[in-house]
Structure formats: structure tokens, C-alpha cells
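sry for the spam today, last one i promise. C-alpha cells for design, 535 residues
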């Protein structure tokens, strides 16, 4: 069975592509570096991370990008014997402007060295490249209108100004004038266009309703690629906006793929909400990726298989999903594939592998948009344990290193080894989503010299840090913390509703002198599958 979500943890905006019997899904990474995640599968059930193609400064530099900016909604396709990846680097979130720059890179193999980028346009975001049967290529994106609602200048009266189409040539760039091919339904916020062709029809799928609980996949079609496009008889192919009881929520933004046998599936993003202490929804993993089985009907339109618009948790498939297992890492000479860092294309400035440890070089503060020494992996389960062993001898309170659960610079908890009044302590602190990024300190707890194991246990809306020597059982330190803060909806939710929770290792040096700390391992254990780091 296909078990949704197929890509767990922060993996939004899925673009799916088939090459022969191989399937690939590209997802957004926002401010996390390297840019774009590409997973591979041969059965639509079991997926493996195979590439993060935007991995050098010539392709992507996000230093200074605000939270939830960076890589939005990539599109992956295959044509002319190579992969094509279209992506946006968004430089602004708040206010009327977006400054969304769109590029194309290519590669003959999915895990090879991708080309330097070709710039296309900055007219909007969610770009997509369609390869027509006659060899022509078409670039589509939503157009952003900074004049906005109520300005009197925008006839559509919306920041989301419609889906824009232009022919594009790899040698000449954009050709001709832009055509607005679709402005969406009354749900509004029309974005994420993907084109495909079947039976002489051009089909357009878009996302509507925003990234929250009104999200939806809408479909339209036309005989001419430039339109006009008629909307699907039921408007939306997939949505949970009318199904609050569904365990999958926020369903929208995906793409059609057909198997070699002609079976059709639609990818979609989704969230798996829990309730916080006040009964409000929160999605710790952010937006994840699912697959829905669909079918073509006699009217020439695509529908969810079995009817309705709410995708199920399980979908028939020819394979069995592998069980989740603990992931135990000991650092050698290569960073494990599940880890990323923030914004910078110069990782040697913030970490290096020594052969037996990960050494973090403390840089800027916990909330920096430029150079923050944070190496972390996605939270993939509602309940998990994570632990690391830290070797750190901070000379004073301006340096520290430890373990953090992190959403963005406004929303995190951390336990760091630092020094207060000459004493080595673990300091537990939080940023609880305040607009002015105020810090809440939960206390300083003395620890002996030498290696210290830092552990965090998360169960739904609760999390607890623990500390101990490397060879002893961990003990709780500080209060039970509100894990629902580390989510799309938590705290200052409107400023960062696009990514998801991470857990990882952090170091800082507020003197600017590059103090270092070492981490000798990192374990991530789903649910209650036993102790971490040998305990």
C-alpha cells in the first residue's frame, strides 16, 4: 500500500516526474541549504533521497533571505535526454513585494553536477516548464501583483494576478508576449501551475485557497495551450477544506503522473495536525507529500479514484512500505544525507567533518538570517527521541553549543552548553513566536567537564530536554516545553507557515572569533522504539 504521506516531514510543493520505470519527486526547501530535495522510487511506495541539486554559490546564495523565503515550488521534468529543474529564489516575504527570481538548471543524471542557472523572469513564483510534443517549451508561473487588494490599480483585485504563459527557448530565452491563461475559481489565491497534455487537451493543475486548511488542487483544460481554459466540473480534484475529520489536512499543490501501465496518480502536499493544550491544530512536520490514485472518466476529466475529493491515508500499490527504523549516525568524513543547514553556500564556514566528529564553528546568533551554525534534520513523526554527544568548553556566556528543536528564528527551543559566572552549565531557552523575538530562559543547570549527552523527547505537543554524561542515563533538565510552537501554526505563525520542524545541533560565538564545538553522533528514534545513544 501507498501510505500517506509518502515523504514525511517538511517536504512541500511536490513536483513528480517519471522517466521509464523510475519516479522522482522534487520538493521545496525554502531557506534550508542545499536547495531542493529530490526523492526517487521505483514503486511509488518506498522513496529515497537522491539529490539536493542546488549546492553551490553560483546556483543559490540565500544569505539574508528572511524565514520562509528561498526555494519555493520547484518543477522537475525530463526532455531531450536530460532533467530540467525550474526553481524560484524568493528574497522577500512581508509587505507588498516578493522579489521572486526564477531560474532553470539541467543535468543528464539526477545525482550529477547540475548546470549553472539560466535566469528566466521575476514576474511571480511557482514556475513550471512544459515540453510540448512539437519540441517547443513553455514557461508558466503565477504572476504577483504588488498593487494588491483595494488599490484600484489591479483589475483582478488580488495579489495573485493569474497564471502567466510564455514560450521559452534554451538559447534565446523568453519569446513573444506573456498570456494570462487562467485566473482561477472563486476560491482564489491561484498558484502552482503545471501543464500536461492528453488526448488533444492541455490540462492545467493549480493550487488554490492558500497553504492553510482551505488549500485545494484545481484543474482546467483547453484545446489551445494559450487558452481559454475551462474549469473542472467539480472545480477541485483534491481538497480537505470540507472534511475537518480527515487525518490529512491542507491538501493541495501537486502534479499528475502516469505509470507505464496507464495508472494515474496525483501528488499533493498535506499536513497531519495534532491538537495543542488549547485544542488548536498544529502541524509539527509542516507540509508533507502524499499521492492519490485517480482515474480518467468518460467526460475527459480526472477524478479521485473512488469519488470525492479527500485523499485517503492508504492507496493500493504493488509494494510494501519499509518500516520506520531508528537512524543512528556517527560522523565520519561525510555529512549524512538527512542533514541540512541554513542559507549559506559556504558550509566550510560553519562546519567540517573531522573523520570522527562533526565540528561546528560558532558564528552569528540563534536568529541570524546570514550565517548561523545550525546543522539539523527534519522531524518526521509526531513522537520521537533525538540525542547527540557534545564536546564543548565555552570560555564564557558568549559561546555555546547544543541541541535545538527549530522552526525558524522566531520559534525554537534549545539546550546549550555554555558558561555562567565561571561555571559550565546547560542553558535551556526558547523563542516562543514573539513578534520581537524575545527570548525566554528556563534556567542554567550545572554539568561536569567532559563529553555531555543532550537528548530531547517529543510527544505531540510536549517536549523535554535531558542531559547526562556519555555513559549514564539521561535526566530531565528544565521544564516540559510546548512543542506546538515548533510548527506552522505555533506562535507567530503568520510569519513562517511554509516549512516544518527540525531537530539538530547548534553552536554560536557572539565575539565573532569562531569558537568551535564537536558532536560525535546523532540519533533519531521514532516514537518509543527504545533508548538513544545506547541508553
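last one done:
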Amino acid at each position: 500500500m501507498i501510505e500517506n504521506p509518502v515523504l514525511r516531514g517538511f517536504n512541500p510543493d511536490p513536483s513528480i516526474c517519471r522517466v521509464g520505470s523510475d519516479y522522482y519527486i522534487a520538493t521545496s526547501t525554502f531557506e534550508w541549504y542545499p536547495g531542493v530535495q529530490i526523492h526517487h522510487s521505483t514503486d511509488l511506495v518506498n522513496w529515497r533521497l537522491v539529490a539536493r541539486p542546488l549546492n553551490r554559490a553560483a546556483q543559490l546564495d540565500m544569505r539574508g533571505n528572511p524565514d520562509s523565503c528561498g526555494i519555493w515550488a520547484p518543477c522537475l521534468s525530463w526532455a531531450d535526454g536530460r532533467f530540467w529543474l525550474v526553481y524560484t529564489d524568493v528574497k522577500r516575504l512581508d509587505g507588498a513585494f516578493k522579489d521572486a527570481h526564477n531560474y532553470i538548471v539541467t543535468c543528464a543524471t539526477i545525482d550529477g553536477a547540475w548546470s549553472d542557472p539560466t535566469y528566466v523572469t521575476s514576474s511571480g513564483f511557482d514556475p513550471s516548464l512544459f515540453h510540448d510534443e512539437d519540441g517547443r517549451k513553455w514557461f508558466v508561473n503565477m504572476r504577483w501583483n504588488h498593487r494588491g487588494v483595494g488599490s484600484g490599480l489591479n483589475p483582478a483585485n488580488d495579489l495573485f494576478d493569474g497564471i502567466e504563459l510564455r514560450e521559452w527557448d534554451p538559447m534565446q530565452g523568453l519569446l513573444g508576449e506573456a498570456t494570462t491563461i487562467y485566473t482561477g475559481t472563486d476560491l482564489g489565491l491561484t498558484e502552482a501551475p503545471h501543464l500536461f497534455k492528453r488526448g488533444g487537451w492541455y490540462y492545467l493543475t493549480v493550487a488554490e485557497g492558500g497553504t492553510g486548511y482551505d488549500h485545494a488542487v484545481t484543474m482546467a483544460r483547453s484545446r489551445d495551450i494559450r487558452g481559454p481554459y475551462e474549469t473542472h466540473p467539480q472545480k477541485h480534484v483534491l481538497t480537505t477544506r470540507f472534511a475537518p475529520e480527515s487525518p490529512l489536512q491542507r491538501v493541495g499543490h501537486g502534479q499528475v503522473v502516469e505509470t507505464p501501465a496507464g495508472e494515474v496518480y496525483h501528488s499533493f502536499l498535506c499536513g497531519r495536525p495534532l491538537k495543542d493544550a488549547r485544542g488548536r491544530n498544529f502541524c509539527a512536520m509542516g507540509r508533507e507529500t502524499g499521492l492519490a490514485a485517480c482515474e480518467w472518466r468518460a467526460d475527459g476529466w480526472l477524478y479521485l479514484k473512488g469519488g470525492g475529493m479527500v485523499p485517503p491515508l492508504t492507496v493500493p500499490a504493488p509494494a510494501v512500505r519499509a518500516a520506520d527504523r531508528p537512524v543512528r549516525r556517527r560522523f565520519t568524513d561525510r555529512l549524512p544525507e538527512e542533514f541540512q543547514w541554513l542559507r549559506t553556500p559556504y558550509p566550510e564556514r560553519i562546519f567540517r567533518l573531522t573523520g570522527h566528529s562533526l565540528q561546528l564553528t560558532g558564528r552569528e546568533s540563534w536568529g541570524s538570517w546570514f550565517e548561523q551554525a545550525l546543522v539539523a534534520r527534519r522531524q518526521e513523526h509526531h513522537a520521537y527521541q533525538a540525542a547527540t554527544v557534545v564536546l564543548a568548553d565555552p570560555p564564557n556566556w558568549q559561546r555555546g553549543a547544543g541541541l535545538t528543536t527549530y522552526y525558524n528564528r522566531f520559534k525554537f527551543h534549545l539546550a546549550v552548553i555554555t558558561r555562567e559566572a565561571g561555571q559550565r552549565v546547560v542553558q535551556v531557552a526558547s523563542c516562543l513566536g514573539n513578534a520581537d523575538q524575545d527570548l525566554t530562559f528556563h534556567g542554567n543547570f550545572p554539568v561536569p567537564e567532559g563529553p555531555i549527552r543532550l537528548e530531547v523527547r517529543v510527544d505531540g505537543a510536549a517536549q523535554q530536554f535531558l542531559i547526562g554524561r556519555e555513559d549514564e542515563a539521561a535526566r530531565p533538565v528544565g521544564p516540559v516545553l510546548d512543542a506546538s510552537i515548533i510548527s506552522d501554526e505555533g506562535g507567530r505563525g503568520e510569519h513562517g507557515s511554509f516549512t516544518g520542524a527540525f531537530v539538530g545541533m547548534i553552536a554560536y560565538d557572539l565575539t565573532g572569533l569562531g569558537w568551535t564545538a564537536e558532536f560525535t553522533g546523532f540519533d533519531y528514534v521514532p516514537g518509543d522504539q527504545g533508548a538513544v545513544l545506547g541508553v
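Residues 529-535 have pLDDT under 50 and may be disordered. ok im logging off now
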